[in-house]
Amino acid sequence: MSDTRDPLCGVKQLSDPLRSFTWLLVALAVFLPLTNLRLLSVALSSSCLLLAVALLVAPPGTPNAIYLRAFRSDSSTAKLRLQLAALLGPKFRLSGIRPPRERTSTFVRYLLPYWFALRYAGSNSMELEAGEEWIARLWKTYQHTRLVFIDMRDLTPYVHQEITLTLDAMGADRCILLVDDLKTPTEWRQVIANNSGLNLDLQRLKLRDVGSASMAMDLKAMVAALPPGTAGVTERGRQYVLDHVDDGLLRESKRAWPVRLLGAAVALVLLVVCPIFWGPLVLILQPLFLPLWMSGLLILAVFSVPISRAAARTVRVAAAGHRLAAARGFAVLALVLVSLTGAVALGLRPYQTLSASGLNALLYGAPETGPAWLSGAHPNQAPRRSADILSDTTSDRPTPEMQQDEAVALLALNRIHDAEAYYRRRHPADGFVCSLVALQPDTAGYSPGAYVGSNLATGQSAGYKFDFVNCSQSTVKHRLVFADYEVVAVPTEPGVSGQSGYCLYTDGSIRKDPSGGKNCTESVQAAKD
Description:
Elements: H1 17-34, H2 40-57, E1 65-68, H3 74-88, E2 94-95, H4 106-111, H5 113-120, H6 134-142, E3 147-151, H7 157-170, E4 175-179, H8 185-196, E5 206-209, H9 215-224, H10 235-244, H11 247-252, H12 258-273, H13 280-285, H14 292-319, H15 323-345, H16 372-375, H17 400-426, H18 454-457, E6 460-461, E7 464-476, E8 479-491, E9 501-505, E10 510-513, E11 522-525
Helix pairs in contact: 1-2, 2-5, 2-15, 3-14, 7-10, 14-15
């Protein structure tokens, strides 16, 4: 029995990775807080960041206006394309095929999603993609397209193919040919007739001189006169694809690229185990210990280019007379700024990290739910342990509550080291101190975080006992000062409030005793610079 299936059945449209990726960002923004309830504020911070990116890069609908040109002219035609997009208004999305050299791999897109999204959005190279089978996929996209622009000022063999395919698939009424004044309209029409081989009524061809002062008005009139709906399927367009695309490329245009399938598989792994996908900017700020205002400035600097692009686009839309669309654009920009503000205000605190799978890892830090104003906790008060300790406290495996208390102890030791360093800078002649009480705030004026709170100064905090040991003295300028110190932190109830004991040394390094005592031999944290 012969195969009577349509050879063009199943051909896919041009790939629109930015649109797909925007929906993924929105889904992740909703999904992330649901899997990170113990660090809700941090999860919400990353969600705000995801939403800000999604709002900035989201394309307005599906492509229904296509701009075709020679790839090498991208730089010189960028301003014209921005003008055309503004003149078309909110009912059209002007798109085009991205040059192969400007594409990113699927793997890179998921490994560095923010870089990919911000690089594609508003790019001079446009955002739709296809491979060698581009003719078939462009033909399929034309079935849902209302208008096509073809820039004829740089005629290459590919542009000649695009002219013929477009006139066959879309018809002369939906195609606008962009020309200049180097040739007369009659000469331009003859160039098209000579190179396309089509038997056309040349007078039906719509030519528009891009340098004409009346171009904007003429373009609006042409758009208003467009036939209703989309082009649909034409027999001449079908035949062109069958004549110019071999069977192998047709099969390629019907299936997902193997590289993309591999990239999607890798992306799935990254979603589960790699927190960089969720909130990289927040995570990058984590080790810097920046105040909120500096964090805000850094994030605004990173987002300055896409925000300026969006603002300029909105201004052009307003200048073209689409005031309602411009108002929506400014509202989106305001929402972006609110989202970025939320990302900074709710962001990670020192020593916190966020896991995509919901297994929140707290490295050397307390499991705070975010800023004190959100959690209701006093800034100097260590988080309380849960009253319900798991019954299996005799197990060798630490319970979540024990891990929480050990994390609090490590954070406290780091705070003590910072306070000692600060004290020595302010009192260089006195050296270090050998008392937790001496590291409380005093009239000398400690900066936030460079002292120990009253809770820790008592020597006990979150199930651990803290004490100075081995404080050695030396003579400096005929005075005895503390030159070195060691602080130990041991669980008040070994096996219940913690399993390991910890030792802090003058250089900032921390070691632990897995048995819960003071014989610290295993390295936990390297010495600080």
